[in-house]
Every structure is written in structure tokens, then in C-alpha cells.
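To whoever is covering the structure queue this week,

Two jobs came back overnight. Logging them here so there's a record in the thread.

Job A:
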Amino acid sequence: MKLILTFFCLLSIINLGAVNTPTSVVDAFDQSSSTINVALSDLNELNDIVITNNFDFETLSNVHPDLVIDNKLNASPSELFESHPDSPLGISGFWWGLCCNIVGMFIVYISMDGGNGRKEQVKSALYGCLTFVGIYALVLLITRS
């Protein structure tokens, strides 16, 4: 069993070395940095306008409402931080169950209002908890062999 596991580990290391050559990593980094620069160009423009004209938020939203709306600066904090609106702290029930197990399921159950959203998130937390148990059992099985 250890021989088979060692073989697959070495095979994966060899494959990683062949796929991630230094030039491909650098090219991927250049592509991602150019994508980030393009995405932040509007924010840089907005920053220059605020600094040169000494605007506060109200003046900026009156003078340049298109930039405020395009950059989602008019969104409420709950819209910005809550990617899963039916879950506590904007974190999916699956991650609560995976990271905190039974306690995570309890947190999801207690913190949400009753209804279909609560039922769905608690079920998702249960799946996360079961996933953790499966991963833990697999790790124990491999380390004990």
C-alpha cells in the first residue's frame, strides 16, 4: 500500500514539474496582473478625481453618479459582504459544517430565521460536516496503513 501511495505521489510531483514550468507561471502571473490592472483602472480614475477636487462622498455621487454606480460604491454593506444572503455572516452552510462540524450546524440553525432558506443551509451544513468526517476517515485510513 505504501509503495502504491509513494508511486502516485512521485508521479504527481513529476507531472507538476512538467506542467508548471517557470515561463508558464510567469505568463500566468502577467496575465492575472494585467486583468487586475484593467479592473482597477476605474477606481484609479475615481481616486484621481477625489484627490484633485477634494470631494467627499456626497459631492462625488452628485457630480459623477455613473462612476459611483459602476464601482458599486452606493451598495449597502450587506450587499457588499454577503455573498450568500441566506446564511450567517455571508458564509455558506457547507463551510460552517466543514470547518466547525456540529457546532457549525448549530450556529447556522440558531442564527437564521425559519423557512426554506434555513432548511437549505442546515442541510448544506450537514453535507459539510459529513464531508469533513469522510476526509478525516480517509486520512486516518491512509496514515494507519
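Job B:
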Amino acid sequence: MTSDVYPPEKRSAVMARVKGRDTGPEMVVRRLLWRLGARYRLHAKGLPGKPDIVLAGRRLVVFVHGCFWHGHDCARGARVPKANRDYWLGKVARNRARDAETRARLEAAGWRVETVWECELKDRTALEARLKALL
């Protein structure tokens, strides 16, 4: 039995507001790349996993992952909700498996794949240096 703090209608409304594109972390990374002179495409449908940022001339794709949703090993990513625990463990595990498969397919096709984690946005100087090194 699942114990949720919200009734199903409210939970559905809450989850519907979770964005998959143009998220805050993604916008930060995009602004940094633009400032560094990189030009890119967004969410290329022709590539596996529809990467958040595609720098085709550099054969580089960048995924901007939320730590919770993609199971990062930081404090936020390691957190598992108490309510509906089994569902969330399975959900994050499926996301991680899909991410690994997507990375493997892109690398096999000759793309460099970089993942920027939400927690890495706290240190903008380090993130900017990392992005500059990629370019």
C-alpha cells in the first residue's frame, strides 16, 4: 500500500509541473556556454536520449541532470522519499539505466558525452572552467 501526503489528483498536478526541458539548471549551463562563445542546438530529436545541448561541430553533447531524478551520488541524489519508497527506487534505477544506455549509444556513434549535475552549479567558477576545457 502506498501512503502519499496528497490525494491522487493533487499528486498528478504536482508531478505535471516537473519540467523536462528548459529547467533552471539547464538554463544556467546554456548561459555559461553562450558566454564562452559556444553555439549549440537544443534537444536534438535525431540523437539518442535527445541531449539537452548539442554542439555538433565539436561532436559534443551535454546532459544537465537533476541529482534526485538521475540518482547522483551527492546528498540530494542519495535521498529517497519515505512515501512510496519502492516506486522511487525503481524509477531512479530505470532513469540511471536509460542514461547509461544513451551514453553508450552516443559514444558508439562518435560523440563526446558530458553530464553536468545540478549540484555542480553551486561552484560556477569550477563549472565554467570545466566547460571551457571541453570547448
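Note for Job B: The domain at 20-134 is CATH 3.40.960.10 (Endonuclease; Chain A).

Please reply-all if you pick these up so we don't duplicate work.
Q.
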